[in-house]
Write a structure and sequence with these properties.
The complex is a heterodimer of chains A (about 600) and B (about 400). With about 600 residues, chain A is of the alpha/beta class. Chain A contains 22 helices and 16 strands. In chain A, a hairpin with a 3-residue loop joins strand 8 and strand 9. The longest helix of chain A has 22 residues. In chain B, about 35% of the residues lie in helices and about 25% in strands. The chains are: A alpha/beta (about 600), B alpha+beta (about 400).
């Protein structure tokens, strides 16, 4: 047997994330004692109509979320208990809603910082209705082997260590959430464990006090002794003492009270709990409480540390008198399935990775590029081209190489609004399309005819150089197997109207006195092709390709240089249109050559 | 409980129709001089000047001056502002009109488990403290307001007669309305006096304790709450409070000068048992501290740094019960970072650290603490099998 929470308890949780977390803890306990999940519903208006997924063993249980308590209890008539995890400013309303539901008999409020008046109103209302209001600031209620309400009891391992899977003989009532687990543990180590442990909350006026719970324990034949953990302030412990001393009680009472240090501390010092405030004129001091309990016949150990031995002594007496028997421990207990992470940490499973990366890792406190922390790269003077080198070619390029890349990017960042990429982005921007999609529209234009020839140009120049071809052999090979030479030829530029970008780049690279076999070859090709036709000059794609291949960049990365640089321009065009608040544009009819058939009659459908 | 100084306390009473003397709160003599020109009552009435700080026994300290004219009030203000009393520097003075009176009475409203209690006595000042049996009470259940009849009976029971009985009943009724509407936990006026000029009852002094948790529904609470013990908060204490106000969970820190045992325990309940154990062992606490509710590691780190900075400490008690959901590894991570920082700053020399804890990821957390030994910390680590406060016994063993 137990009190408040038992095998018939069915729960609705009022609240969001904290409530879901509690449900998870409660599911762990249900799994340990091999019983179905006690949580049947949530009430959380923002998510009403959805479900919360609660792990149970290795599976997941979907728990419905409702807008009101009434809806929850209508759909789940077995619900008789509510746990309130709502913020302090709305907690009273939520608590009242639960108390007013005819199906709900116990309401436990976990919320902290609830105004005192609200807590009193809730407590009074519950008493009038003959229901139990526990809390606020309650860590929860747990009945060993039967039911857990809230996170009380801690992690799964602790549930097992504290033998919460089966009933003991000790009841526990505590204001402190943190100490509830400690006492449960002590009861399991020095005696046979607990029946029910209740966190009543550390506020000045808990909704239900020690006396009401002592009365319930007195009427629960399985509970043979009750441990109360008190603290200075208020008169709850004195009332408990009064109750205990009033007549012969079946249960033994063991009590400890904290706050003796108050006698030697600055006056008015505030302790951890709201309720732990010193009383006026000495009332409510730890000493007066402790004395009252002793006088009433309770067992009061001198310190918290002495609690274990006192509990042990009480248990031995209960054993001797035959009131309790040594418990029988189950042979096997369920083990909580580990998450994949935990199992891997314990070297229990091996998982085949889904993807493999060789360039970057941000699992630490900052990203590492090819192993180098980003901040260290910054602090040691490295720049964007070096990051490109690390991420595209997995190497730290030289200062000189970085300068070349920088110049390539600067030269190809934009080419005015008329080219395919920029025009597509502008068209999209004018249609009100967002930045990433509009820039993507521009990037989609990059292909064999616009900006996308860098990779191919690099590939074939490299092929020629690697195979030690001369220009004629190369041109013959290309004509036979490939077609026009990528990187050669321009729509508007020609020998007489040279591309200044090409001149600039070639001039700079040649001034460096480095080996540039591909570039040299490309220029030699131009010598031949430009003679054949004026505009068959080495274009900017071809120049970039040759230079980058000479630097050792992999052929497949080459288009990336154009894509990256031109993205700068495309973003600029989008922002530019946005800034001007440009309107939707469409082609004028006179810009279209309507070569479609003239209007004609549609034949009947056959 | 949140204590409110006299000025804002009287402001709340005035808001609910309780007569209070005219008063001003000033931070300089210039301000008072200017106000004196603007307000007739300051020129025509005798004045009282009091240091407007959370200080006990102001009278004895010479921080209350009565029977002043404006010039004397300016002089008194000049004398008080900037005066150092313990760790408090007087920065505000409340100057109020003296209300000539013959009789003094007492009225208070306090929070009780059932609801509230109205206290009335037909004596006031020091007299009521020595004649506590003359205080009559009216107990009210929460949500219940006193009827006119109940109030009048209370007033008559306390010995008020004739028209004064009705006036005292009204006064107590307004006190209750103020208490109820402002989420107060304690309101006391001592003394209540009859103003000779118009025969009205006036509150000459206000002790106001409000429910800080109810601040969310009182947008006009624009005053700061006063420190609840006779000193202002230190810089480190305020820094921890600032952290506390913006995190999930809590961190608390109060300095106790002169102690040598520093406290860094977890949990509002356990922390007091740890403090008790130190005192019981004859140790001297250097602080009170507590972290709970699974606070973020950086918040615990800040708290740790403050604890390590306490002067003259010999032991640090990193105690704690078996946590329900506070992640031991994570919170200990914050403590470990704090220890490392303190050590790097040359602190913790000769300081012994004592650890006891249980809860989620306790093994990882305790192992990480144990590893600090290799970094040269004098640290002793115990798990759940060592009773809660035994580390205090070990630390303070002579």
């Amino acid at each position: 047997m137990s009190i408040l929470a038992n095998k018939d308890t069915r729960v609705v949780i009022q609240g969001g994330a904290a409530g879901v977390n509690a449900a998870r803890r409660m599911a762990e306990f249900c799994y340990l004692i091999k019983r179905p999940l006690t949580v049947e519903a949530f009430v959380y208006p923002p998510d009403a109509g959805k479900t919360n997924e609660v792990p149970y063993g290795s599976g997941l249980i979907a728990i419905p979320i409702y807008k009101t308590i009434a809806e929850a209890t209508k759909n789940h008539p077995a619900i008789n208990t509510s746990l309130v995890y709502i913020g302090a400013d709305r907690a009273m309303k939520g608590g009242m809603e639960a108390l007013d539901d005819p199906n709900i008999k116990v309401v436990s409020m976990i919320t902290e910082g609830v105004p005192e008046k609200d807590a009193k109103l809730l407590g009074t209302h519950a008493r009038k209705l003959g229901k139990v209001f526990n809390g606020p600031s309650s860590i929860g209620i747990i009945s060993a082997g039967a039911c857990r309400l809230g996170v009380i009891g801690g992690a799964f391992d602790n549930l097992v260590l504290s033998k919460l899977y089966r009933e003991g003989s000790f009841g526990v009532i505590t204001k402190s959430g943190g100490l509830s687990n400690e006492i449960i543990w002590i009861c399991s180590q020095f005696a046979d464990g607990i029946t029910t442990a209740i966190g009543i909350g550390g506020d000045a006026y808990p909704g239900t006090d020690y006396v009401s719970y002592l009365e319930m324990f007195e009427n629960d034949p399985q509970t043979k002794a009750v441990v109360i953990v008190g603290e200075m302030g208020g008169d709850l412990e004195e009332r408990a003492a009064e109750w205990y001393g009033a007549k012969k009680r079946r249960v033994k009472l063991i009590g400890v009270v904290s706050g003796f240090c108050q006698e030697s501390l600055p006056k008015g010092m505030k302790f951890g709990h709201a309720g732990a405030k010193e009383g006026m004129k000495g009332e409510g001091s730890a000493r007066s409480k402790s004395d009252a309990l002793k006088k009433a016949g309770a067992i009061v150990p001198p310190t918290f540390g002495a609690l274990g031995p006192v509990i042990k002594e009480t248990y031995q007496e209960l054993l001797k008198s035959g009131q309790v028997k040594e418990p029988v421990e189950p042979a096997v207990l369920p083990k909580l399935p580990k998450s994949v992470e935990e199992a891997m940490k314990a070297d229990e499973v091996m998982v085949a990775p889904l993807i493999r990366t060789t360039i970057s890792d941000d699992r630490g406190d900052e990203p590492c590029y090819d192993g180098y922390p980003a901040s260290e790269l910054i602090n040691k003077g490295y720049e964007i081209p070096h990051v490109i080198g690390l991420l595209w070619d997995k190497r730290l390029i030289s200062k000189q190489e970085a300068e070349i890349i920088k110049r390539i990017m600067m030269l190809s960042a934009d080419h005015g609004p008329c080219v395919s990429g920029a025009y597509a982005t502008i068209l999209a921007a004018c249609a009100g399309i967002g930045l990433s999609q509009a820039v993507a529209a521009g990037l989609i234009m990059i292909g064999p005819r616009f900006g996308g020839a860098v990779t191919d140009a690099g590939r074939w120049f490299k092929y020629a150089v690697d195979n030690k071809m001369n220009v004629d052999e190369f041109l013959a090979y290309m004509k036979k197997n490939v077609g026009p030479v990528p990187g050669i030829g321009h729509r508007v530029k020609s020998l007489r109207n040279p591309d200044k970008r090409v001149k600039e780049l070639v001039g700079y690279v040649k001034s460096l006195n480095i080996k540039t076999p591909c570039l040299d070859f490309a220029l030699a090709v131009e010598q031949v092709t430009a003679v054949k036709k004026d505009n068959l000059i080495l274009n900017v794609d071809g120049t970039m390709a040759a230079v980058l291949v000479d630097m050792g960049f992999p052929v497949d990365s080459l288009n990336g240089f154009f894509i990256l640089s031109r993205t700068i321009g495309l973003i600029g065009h989008w922002v530019d249109q946005k800034r001007q608040d440009s309107r939707l544009i469409r082609l004028f009819d006179y810009l279209v050559n309507y070569a479609a058939p003239k209007r004609r009659e549609v034949p009947p459908l056959k | 409980m949140a204590k409110v100084l006299e000025g804002p306390g009287m402001g709340l009473m005035k808001k609910w129709g309780i007569h209070v003397p005219n008063y001003v709160v000033v931070t300089s003599t210039d301000e008072l001089t200017k106000l004196g020109q603007a307000n007739d009552w300051m020129k025509t009435s005798k004045l009282v000047a009091k240091a407007h700080e959370a200080l006990g026994s102001r009278f004895k300290l010479g921080l209350v001056k009565v029977g002043l004219d404006l010039n004397a009030a300016v002089a008194a203000t000049k004398e008080m502002i900037g005066r150092q009393v313990g760790s408090i520097t007087v920065s505000q003075v409340i100057v109020s009109e003296m209300v000539p009176h013959k009789e003094e009475y007492y009225c208070a409203v306090k929070s009780t488990r059932e609801g509230s209690e109205i206290l009335v006595a037909n004596c006031g000042g020091i007299e009521v403290e020595s004649n506590w049996d003359r205080v009559k009470r009216l107990c009210l259940e929460v949500g219940q307001a006193p009827s006119a009849g109940q109030l009048e009976k209370l007033s008559k029971d306390a010995g008020f007669t004739g028209p004064l009985a009705k006036k005292m009943a009204d006064f107590a009724g307004k006190m209750f309305t103020c208490f109820e509407s402002e989420d107060a936990q304690y309101l006391e006026v001592n003394p209540v006096v009859t103003r000779e000029s118009d025969g009205e009852l006036v509150a000459l002094d206000a002790v106001t304790l409000l429910d800080g948790d109810a601040k969310f529904r009182h947008p006009d609470w624009n005053f700061p709450f006063a420190a609840e013990f006779g000193r202002s908060y230190s810089k480190d204490e305020m820094e921890v409070m600032a952290v506390d106000s913006k995190i999930k969970g809590s961190v608390k820190f109060i300095e106790i000068p002169g102690g040598d045992t520093a406290m860094l325990p977890a949990g509002g309940g356990a922390s007091v048992y740890y403090s008790d154990a130190v005192v019981a062992r004859g140790g001297k606490l250097a602080n009170y501290a507590e972290y709970s509710g699974d606070p973020p590691d950086w918040a615990v780190e800040v708290l740790t740094e403050k604890v390590c900075s306490l002067p003259g400490i010999k032991n640090i008690i990193v105690g704690g019960a078996i946590a329900n959901f506070t992640d031991v590894k994570k919170t200990f991570g914050g403590i470990i970072n704090g220890f490392r920082k303190a050590k790097g700053d040359g602190k913790l020399k000769g300081v012994k650290i004592w650890v006891r804890r249980g809860g989620p990821r306790e093994k990882e957390g305790l192992d990480a603490m144990r590893a600090l030994k290799d970094e040269g910390f004098d640290i002793n680590v115990f798990d759940r099998n060592t009773p809660l406060t035994d580390i205090v016994d070990k630390a303070l063993q002579k």
